[in-house]
Specification:
Elements lengths: L1 E7 L2 E6 L8 E10 L3 H12 L2 E6 L8 E8 L2 E8 L6 H8 L2 E9 L2 H10 L4 E10 L2 E9 L5 E6 L12 E2 L11 E10 L5 H12 L2 E6 L10 E8 L6 E8 L6 H9 L3 E9 L2 H10 L10 H5 L1 H5 L10 H6 L3 E5 L2 E7 L10 E8 L9 H15 L3
Parallel strand pairs: 3-6, 7-10, 12-15, 16-19
Antiparallel strand pairs: 1-2, 3-7, 4-5, 4-11, 5-6, 8-9, 9-10, 12-16, 13-14, 14-15, 17-18, 18-19
The structure holds fe (ii) ion.
The site of fe (ii) ion has 6 residues, from strand 12 and strand 16.
Length: 386
């Protein structure tokens, strides 16, 4: 199915045959979180994750209903939005889901066409094509619902030279913690309900022209206690990858079911961000107080040379350092990858981050699933949700 692999600025790209790129998608534009206190959330992501102040919208810019802080690191842009009064519909989202991802915005050449093509194929509209203008030009945005109350917004910005979007001003701050080496969003994972994975996969195929290029069933993704199923969707140029998870029956509660219980429905489970130097990035994140899942047992690290096989001699990282930082390693036929997962970044056990460094591998760390899920189960045990 994958025709060609090449190195581009977005990391490894595979060109997928069978995908119909009628949109087409140029990349992730931004991710918008609805949060209870955007000002404090922005401070957390700057301090802990090394994001920089980028743009702002709120009372000072004439927006009376909500405040949005945009933070950036290399190609990653996160918008943190909080309502300013009880009438805002954002409140219902927050009451139900807690802090979480509302918008996965995709950068497109033609927003009107993207909306027309997707709604014509059955997408439910969230926002009709809308032109927003200021002295720097114009942006066209439109949006559709995906799983749960999560939406995709198509952003066309070819006629815009401003900082972020019309209505925002550049946000200059005196507090500028250094970056930690996060480069771009590698993939974003959605959790959907029991029996909903295949219909979500079909939705991405039919409505967005994506292809399903990897699948894992509950026989592959399980521990002694819990299980899940996952299918990975990609757009045609491989820049956008959305694995979709569904819980599966096990002796105890699946981590996906725990997510669904606390998010009260489907939503974004994790955002994987890429780095070129995971050791440096993770040392920095740990020093700044980011909490990661507990490390796999020592035996896991003893098995790494066997798991990496022919790729072991190209591995530059010191295994002792990798183990000390609790980073996990996996390989596929194209190379290896290093990855680590944070604990949830809010009180509800919902959204978390993955830090990933790809050294040729194009997979998602399937060889780590068991060790990873055992770590998550140790956390579920503490929360009384296993
Ligand atoms: Fe992931």
């Amino acid at each position: 199915m994958a025709k060609e692999i090449k190195n581009v600025e977005y990391g490894l790209e595979k060109i997928f045959e069978g995908a119909q790129d009628f949109l087409p998608l140029l990349g992730t534009d931004y991710v918008e979180f609805y949060v209870g206190n955007a000002k404090q959330a922005a401070h957390f992501y700057k301090t802990a994750f090394g994001f920089q102040s980028f743009a702002y919208k709120g009372l000072e810019t004439g927006c009376r209903d909500y405040a949005s802080y945009v933070i950036a690191q290399e190609k990653i842009k996160i918008v943190l939005t909080t309502p300013l009064n009880s009438n805002s519909p954002i409140n219902q989202h927050l009451t139900k889901h807690g802090d979480g991802v509302k918008v996965v915005a995709l950068w497109v050449e033609d927003s009107r066409k993207s909306w027309e093509e997707t709604t014509k194929r059955g997408a439910k509209s969230f926002m009709e094509p809308t032109v927003e203008k200021d002295e720097h030009g114009e942006v066209v945005r439109s949006g559709i619902y995906t799983y749960g109350e999560t939406v995709h917004i198509f952003v066309e910005r070819k006629n815009y030279k401003g900082t972020f979007l019309p209505g925002y001003k550049a946000w200059k701050s005196d507090y500028n913690p250094t970056a930690v080496g996060l480069k771009f969003i590698d993939h974003m994972v959605g959790n959907v309900g029991w029996g909903e994975m295949n219909q979500t996969v079909k939705w991405y195929e039919d409505v967005m022209g994506f292809v399903n290029f990897l699948s894992f069933d509950d026989k592959q993704i399980h521990t002694e206690y819990s299980a899940l199923m996952s299918k990975v969707m990609s757009n045609g140029n491989g820049r956008i990858k959305f694995p979709i998870n569904e819980p599966a029956e096990g002796k105890k509660k699946s981590q996906i079911e725990e997510y669904l219980d606390f998010y009260e429905g489907p939503g974004v489970q994790h955002i994987a961000v890429a780095t070129n130097d995971i050791i440096k990035t993770v040392m920095e994140l740990r020093a700044r107080g980011v909490e990661f899942l507990s490390p796999p047992p020592h035996a896991y690290y003893e098995e790494i040379p066997a798991r990496l096989g022919k790729h072991m001699n190209m591995m530059k990282e010191d295994l002792n350092v990798i183990e000390k930082l609790a980073i996990m390693v996996d390989a596929d036929e194209d190379g290896y990858l290093l990855q680590i997962f944070t604990k949830p970044v809010e009180d509800r056990p919902t959204l978390f981050f993955e830090i990933i460094q790809r050294m040729g591998a194009t997979g998602f760390g399937a060889g780590n699933f068991k060790a990873l899920f055992e770590s998550i189960e140790r956390e579920q045990e503490k929360r009384g949700t296993l």
